[in-house]
Amino acid sequence: TGSCSGTLIGPKTVLTAAHCLYSHEDGGWLNNILFAPGLNGMNDAPFGVWDAESTSILEGFVTQYQGFYGSVVPWDLGIITLKEPIGDTLGYLGYANFDNLGDFDANIVGYPGDKQPKGTMWRASCSVVTEAIGSDNFQYDCDTYPGSSGSSVYAFDNATKARIVTGVNVAESKSANTAVRLNAAYVGWIDGLWK
C-alpha cells in the first residue's frame, strides 16, 4: 500500500504521477486505486472515497525505463478515471500548456508524508524562474516530501482568478524538486482521456 496526491481536473478525471499507478520494481500496474478528495487525516474523508474505473500513464514511462527512476522522469504523468463524476459536485481545476511559460509563483497542494497528522492536505508556494523551466519539466524549491508525488503545480491566473495546473510534482532532491511540465503534447494526451 502507499499514498500519493492527485488533482481533479474534470468530472471523472484525476491528474497524478505515473509512479503512483505503475511500479517498475513491483512488476507493473498497481491495483485497488482509491481517490479521497480533501482527506483530513487518515480516517476522515469528508467528500468520500471513490473507486477508479481505469488508469493511464504515458507510454514512455514503461518503454524508456533503464533500471532506475531517473530514466523515466520526463514521462511521469498519470490519469485516473473515476467511476463516478464527483467533479460535477466538488469542482475541478483547469490545466493548460503555456508555450512561453516564464517566471511564475507555483502552488503545490498534496499530502506530504512528513506532516502531522498523517493524511492531511498541505500547500507549499515558491517562485519558479524561467531558467529552471525546460520543455518537459521545471524545477523549484517548494517544500515537498514523499506523498507529495502527483500533486498538481498550479499558477494563479490574475486575469481570470483561476488556478491553472501547469505541471505535476514527481521528484524530490536536495538541490531542487521537479515537476513534469504540461507541454502541448501532454495536454493533448490528457484531453484525449478527459471525462
Using brief descriptors, characterize the structure shown.
single chain; 195 residues; 34% strand; 5-stranded antiparallel beta sheet; mainly beta
Write the layout of secondary structure elements.
Elements: E1 7-8, E2 13-16, E3 22-23, E4 28-29, E5 34-35, E6 50-57, H1 60-63, E7 78-82, H2 87-90, E8 94-95, E9 104-110, E10 122-128, E11 137-140, E12 152-157, E13 162-171, E14 177-181, H3 184-193
Parallel strand pairs: 8-13
Antiparallel strand pairs: 1-2, 2-7, 3-4, 5-6, 6-7, 9-10, 9-12, 11-14, 12-13, 13-14
Shape: globular
Weakly predicted, low-confidence segments: none
Helix content: under 10%
Order of helices and strands: EEEEEEHEHEEEEEEEH
Q: Give the total of beta strands.
A: 14
Radius of gyration: 16 Å
- In angstroms, what separates the terminal alpha carbons? 27 Å
The average pLDDT value, as a whole number, equals 94
Describe the fold and architecture.
The chain has 195 residues and is mainly beta. The chain has three helices and 14 strands. It has helices spanning 60-63, 87-90, 184-193, and strands at 7-8, 13-16, 22-23, 28-29, 34-35, 50-57, 78-82, 94-95, 104-110, 122-128, 137-140, 152-157, 162-171, 177-181. The strands form three sheets. Strands 8, 9, 10, 11, 12, 13 and 14 form a seven-stranded mixed β-sheet that branches. The chain is globular, with a radius of gyration of 16 Å. The mean pLDDT is 94.
